[in-house]
Amino acid sequence: MPRMDMAPPPVQTSGETTPHRDGEQYANVNWDELGFDAVPTDYMYVMKCSIEEGDFSHGKLIPYGNIELSPSAGVLNYGQGLFEGLKAYRREDGRIQLFRPEQNALRMKMGAERMCMLSPTVEQFVDAVKQTVIANNRFVPPPGKGALYLRPLLMGSGPLLGLAPAPEYTFLIFASPVGNYHKGRPALKLFVEDKLQRAMPGGTGGVKSITNYSPVYLAQTKAKAKGYSDVLFLDSAHGKYVEELAVCNIFIVKGNVVSTPAIQGTILPGVTRKSIIEIALGFGYQVEERLIPVEDLLEADEVFCTGTAVIVNSVGGVTYQDKRVEYKTGKETLSKKLYETLIGIQTGRVEDKMGWTLEVN
Cα(12)–Cα(16) distance, rounded to whole angstroms? Predict the structure, then answer.
């Protein structure tokens, strides 16, 4: 049976800490230079379950470190794995809070059903996230300096040779302090990819499977080499409807109408996407979840993308075939208003009237 061990002792950025006003200690991290890179923290959470057991039971915190897997593990041989992403923010008063973690738990359960995996309950998921945050408290950035990013993983860790669901599953959460996904949050320049596909009907595009992401590398690498920020993929059935970027959902604005691609099995149901829809409705906008032809994208007044990593990021322009279109950006845009509202709720600067946040201290 595969083991999960730590190789070295806890890896830290430095053995030093710096005090903050609540008397606790911050890790010795340059908070002003945080990007979206992996920074080793103190602890990670691990919980296992076998097919014979049927349910996940007791998990535990262990020092952050390497893991050991059988070379015949299902996740390594057949890609049987899922991941989630969510953040913990430090409020101005020092308290730490999560944003809608139960939504990530529910999405993992949905993905596990699609991938024939055992999964933690919503309560187990949320409790594990809270424990991981508390154990890595000193890596939660100061207010306004970023967030502690949580990466829950669900893996087919049991060994097998034939094509079948793994006999054992491992649920693991590690954490890293992060800043902006796009340094400085510039307006994005997107390339509309009309040859390579991200997802297909009946596939796994609608769940957060690990197999969804490496297929975008080729298109993304080519686009970035030409100066674009990211790639926007079209549907595989017709090649004419907007779907999503490599790592986030997309919205277009025309007048008082906000549109985003409908969830039909190829679009990831983003937690940020869902939250932005509710906020936009509260602002009085009409929100449509529908098929969006490329022509509607090219005629939009404003375009922005959403996701846990990017939060809300405006799009400055897109290139489709030989046509380049630019959009409204800046302080007066809807995306700016949505970003300020959402990040305000997540960090405690704006009253949470939705009941979306969860304190972990």
Answer: 9
- Cα(348)–Cα(334) distance, rounded to whole angstroms? 21
Contact status, residue 86 vs residue 275, Cβ threshold 8 Å: no
> What is the helix (H) or strand (E) element at residue 320, kind and residue range?
strand 311-320
Where are the alpha helices (H) located in 160-311, listed in sequence order? 217-225, 271-282, 294-298
Distance CA 57, CA 213 (A): 30
pLDDT value at 9 more than 60: no
Q: Are 312 and 250 in contact (CB under 8 A)?
A: no
Distance CA(262)–CA(288), nearest Å, equals 8
Residues known to be catalytic: 208
Residue of higher predicted confidence among 69 and 18: 69
pLDDT number for residue 21: 45
User: How many residues are listed for the chain in this entry?
Assistant: 361
In the chain, what is the greatest distance between 2 CA atoms, to the nearest angstrom?
A: 58
Beta pairing class for 188-193 and 230-234: parallel
Confidence (pTM): 0.92
pLDDT for 361 equals 77
Written as one letter, the residue type at 116 is: C
Q: What pLDDT, in 10s, does the model give residues 23-41?
A: 568 999 999 999 999 999 9
CA angle 4, 216, 149 (to 5 degrees): 45
CA–CA distances in Å: residue 202 to residues 199, 205, 219, 237, 238: 9, 8, 22, 11, 15
Q: How far apart are CA 266 and CA 245, in angstroms?
A: 12
